[in-house]
């Protein structure tokens, strides 16, 4: 018998011997589920009480009951079996593809369902699932980075990738980065804060902190990508208009087996020194005809912030066209 309140579910498991196997040695199986979902699981006799956000409670319950059923069939439960329960089944993958044939598009993350609001956003989300390399180009407030991070979290949760890497050029710091107080993380974090904010919307705080500590989630300046091959990762380059042509080439050639890359930027907000070409503009010029690379464009109509922001962007766009 299962009972539930808003932030707690209690599940009864009748066979105490199987419950011991379900929990694992030193409760390591429960710890694994807690880590993945950001919930807390306590054993009370023949019951497991799960504490956390409502959506996560249901997912934890489903995983625990599936593993218990496995034990009832005389099969063992190990780390790989837990991982398998979290990974996307063929049916789930098919459902994800069918989603794009419907009017409503949703991205499931640990904390919330994210729904693209405009046609351009829906096409963009579809391209992120369908292409190994996708570009999102347009003004601020159109959801380019936010939706990319949501898809990355969805793919990580479903086991399609093993890690998320978020990067942006710390161009505002320039050569003065070394003179800022603190260690390298403290110097760089202010430039990375928008990426932390997006992740915080989709992952419970404790789980996100643990993932960052274990490097399942990495947030780093673009310069730190040099020399790495990024396999089985979902990689986002934000503010790409501030990458130089050399940096852009370096980043794009990091793409490894099983990885997805998303490059987002706003062509009207280049902060590079005068005379230095934007790597985003170069990539757009050189790669627009390459198969399996998608370019997705946003306008003021796709701004999902305050309505006045869209009006401001439109005014500036008209002035640029007139000039």
Task: Describe this entry's structure for a reader.
- The protein is an alpha/beta fold and 323 residues long.
- 44% of the residues lie in helices and 17% in strands.
- It has helices at residues 16-23, 28-37, 54-72, 79-86, 90-99, 119-130, 144-157, 184-202, 205-213, 245-252, 279-287, 307-322, and strands spanning 2-5, 8-12, 40-44, 47-51, 107-108, 113-114, 133-137, 163-168, 217-221, 233-237, 260-265, 293-297.
- Helix 1 crosses helix 3 (54-72), helix 6 (119-130) packs across helix 7 (144-157) and helix 7 (144-157) packs across helix 8 (184-202).
- The radius of gyration is 22 Å and the shape is elongated.
Topology (elements, then pairings):
Elements: E1 2-5, E2 8-12, H1 16-23, H2 28-37, E3 40-44, E4 47-51, H3 54-72, H4 79-86, H5 90-99, E5 107-108, E6 113-114, H6 119-130, E7 133-137, H7 144-157, E8 163-168, H8 184-202, H9 205-213, E9 217-221, E10 233-237, H10 245-252, E11 260-265, H11 279-287, E12 293-297, H12 307-322
Parallel strand pairs: 7-11, 7-12, 8-9, 8-10, 10-11
Antiparallel strand pairs: 1-2, 2-4, 3-4, 5-6
């Amino acid at each position: 018998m299962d009972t539930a309140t808003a932030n707690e579910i209690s599940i009864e498991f009748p066979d105490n011997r199987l419950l011991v196997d379900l929990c694992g040695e030193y409760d390591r199986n429960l710890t694994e589920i807690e880590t993945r979902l950001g919930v807390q699981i306590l054993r009370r006799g023949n019951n497991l009480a799960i504490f956390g956000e409502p959506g996560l409670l249901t997912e934890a319950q489903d995983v625990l009951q599936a593993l218990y059923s496995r034990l009832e069939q005389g099969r063992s439960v190990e780390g790989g079996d837990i991982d398998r329960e979290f990974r996307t089944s063929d049916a789930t993958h098919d459902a994800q593809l069918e989603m794009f044939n419907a009017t409503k598009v949703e991205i499931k993350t640990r904390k919330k369902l994210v729904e693209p609001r405009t046609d351009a956003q829906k096409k963009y989300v579809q391209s992120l699932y369908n292409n190994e390399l996708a570009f999102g180009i347009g003004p601020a407030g159109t959801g380019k980075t936010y939706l990319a991070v949501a898809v990355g979290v969805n793919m990580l949760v479903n086991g399609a990738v093993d890690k998320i890497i978020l990067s942006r050029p710390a161009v505002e710091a320039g050569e003065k980065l070394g003179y800022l107080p603190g260690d390298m993380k403290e110097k760089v974090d202010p430039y990375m804060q928008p990426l932390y904010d997006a992740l915080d919307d989709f992952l419970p705080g404790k789980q996100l902190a643990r993932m960052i500590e274990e490097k399942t989630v990495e947030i780093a300046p673009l310069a730190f990508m040099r020399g790495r091959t990024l396999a089985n990762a979902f990689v986002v380059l934000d503010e790409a208009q501030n990458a130089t042509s050399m940096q852009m080439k370096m980043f794009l050639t990091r793409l490894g087996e099983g990885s997805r890359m998303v490059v987002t930027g706003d062509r009207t907000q280049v902060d590079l020194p005068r005379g230095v070409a934007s790597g985003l503009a170069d990539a757009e010029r050189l790669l627009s005809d390459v198969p399996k690379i998608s370019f997705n464009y946003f306008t003021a109509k796709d701004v999902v912030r305050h309505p006045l922001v869209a009006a401001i962007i439109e005014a500036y766009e008209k002035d640029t066209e007139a000039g």
